[in-house]
What we know:
mainly alpha; two-stranded antiparallel ribbon
Amino acid sequence: MSLEKSEVDTISRLAAISVDATEVDQLTAKISNVLDLFQRMEAVDTTNVEPMSHPLDQVQRLREDVVTETDHHERYQKLAPAAEKGMYLVPQVID
């Protein structure tokens, strides 16, 4: 898939990216190459391929789900300027 210079200009304007006029030709070629790669990848038949969670056959080590910190909730609530029913009260900022 080949892009035109005008399309690159439009894309850069929509993305709010400043592209120098001297870089437009090079950028057009690079983006066209990426889009060509995507087109070739779409053509590959992946019907019987199962999705992988990781490209290498690795198992993720998980830690035990245990509480490691002490609960300071009540102490922090006492320090707050305003708290009620376990929640911090703040001034309303949106009408």
